[in-house]
Fold this protein.
Amino acid sequence: QVQLVESGGGSVQAGGSLRLSCAVSGLTDGAYCMGWFRQAPGKEREGVAAIDSDGSTTYTDSVKGRFTISKDNAKNTLYLQMSSLKPEDTAMYYCAADGTTALVPIDFGYWGEGTQVTVSS
């Protein structure tokens, strides 16, 4: 049974930083793409960043230079380091696995429950 459990969300002021983590179980080999998505109230879920099995990364334009995706295969954990946070980054953040770097939600087979990030001005 595949499980993805996010943590690290919270409330922060604009300009601050947070690091999200996603603990993965049930996927024992590293040959899959993982990603972070977010969804704000009343908006569609959007791709934030993805990392492929070879370590290559993709970011949506609005977070380039501010967010960094990484993974620790030994710990089966995915991370999203978020810096210079803006109020428009406020959303529920979801971890996903077994997708593509095109950051299309329907491509990903496994999802976590999400962790809330709130950025105040």
